[in-house]
Design goal:
An eight-stranded antiparallel β-barrel has the order 1-2-3-4-5-6-7-8. It is mainly beta. It has one domain (3-154): AOC barrel-like. It has one helix at residues 3-15; strands at 31-41, 48-57, 63-74, 79-90, 93-106, 109-121, 129-138, 144-154. Helices cover 8% and strands 59% of the residues. The radius of gyration is 15 Å and the shape is elongated. It has one helix and eight strands; from the N terminus they run αββββββββ.
């Protein structure tokens, strides 16, 4: 059940990636981006765990890396929720997001989907706000995960 944690963590991290710069002195317009994330879980069978991964996003961000921590809350032997915090690292700053994804297990295959909320940033992203829809899977019980994210965000004033 915790195998899905890694994939879900990666999803949250990727959600914070699609940020763009707003013009100074103007209200921040909503922007849209998409990201692809690949992760490796350090201990896919633990209830509390962490993962690391790489991301590729549309827009000015390009590539980055991420680190997630999360807690697995099973609702049955084959389903549950993974919730936690993700930090994305880019050349010009970091983005932090909180996430919650529902997962289902079918043998070694884990599928998941949910949402993330951007809660802060540093550097060029210090005023970032946004949300993302997350979808992904793991084919090997949660050790390796892949995720896509659709992000809506602003950089504030």
């Amino acid at each position: 059940m915790t195998r899905s944690r890694t994939t879900a963590l990666a999803a949250a991290a990727a959600a914070a990636l699609g940020l763009a710069h707003a013009a100074p002195g103007h209200a921040a317009a909503l922007k849209h981006a998409s990201c692809a994330l690949k992760t490796v879980d350090l201990n896919p069978t633990a209830a509390n765990d962490e993962d690391f991964g790489t991301l590729k996003c549309s827009g000015p961000f390009g590539a980055g890396v991420q680190h997630n921590t999360a807690t697995l809350t099973p609702s049955s032997a084959t389903a549950g929720t993974l919730s936690g915090r993700s930090t994305l690292y880019f050349a010009t700053g970091t983005v932090t997001a909180k996430f919650a994804v529902k997962y289902t297990l079918n043998g070694p295959v884990i599928t998941f989907g949910g949402a993330a909320k951007v809660v802060g940033g540093t550097g060029a992203y210090k005023k970032i706000k946004g949300a993302a829809k997350l979808q992904g899977s793991s084919q090997d019980g949660g050790t390796h995960g892949a995720m896509t994210e659709k992000i809506t965000f602003s950089l504030g004033r």
